[in-house]
Amino acid sequence: MEDKKINEKESLELISEMIRKTKEGAAMKQDYNAFLFYGYTAAAVSLIAWLLIHFTGKMEFMFVWFAMFLPYLWTTFSGKRKKPEVTTYIDGMLGNIWKVIGSMFGLTLIAMLLIGIVATKEINFSLMMPLAIIYGGIGTSMTGLVIKEKWFVWPPLTGLVAAVYMLMDGSCDNLWNFLFGLSFLTFMAIPAHIVRSKIK
Fold first, then answer.
1. Residue 174: which residues within 8 A CB-CB, separation 6 or more?
2. Which of 43, 63, 95, 121 could form a disulfide with 181 if both were Cys (CB 3.0 to 4.6 A apart)?
């Protein structure tokens, strides 16, 4: 294949066009809707779970938390999203970060199920709550480091405190619902609103 030589004017036009397309793609992606979606879904589910357990006294309502898979299913299977004309290295990196985090969620659930059936003879998903805070916090912090946005880097540390408390406490009670919802609001929804206002 023969290389086509371009002059200085064509080269500048090509670079300008690539920059324009990259900016348009970035502007579309930087609405941070996914962070708002998951943050507010976690807050809503935590409130529902807390109310159900508070008024019935039945911890079985912790299974309401499986509703957190609904945002994932919705964003994955709702309509075919248009592929961007330009995919930057950062876009690919962010996508891979959340693929790994998503895989950690799925594999943890499978591991808990198999260990419960084979080894402990009791299936207990309660540890999923602190682990989910840790996984979500890691993904959010890594996103912040990649896009150089401090509001996504440091707030997940507040969620880490809640997760460590849950792991040390060990007794899954109704307070966990409150801590989980508050954690996701703190390190996903609130930073997303702050960064969106900065962009505007």
1. 49, 50, 53, 54, 59
2. 43
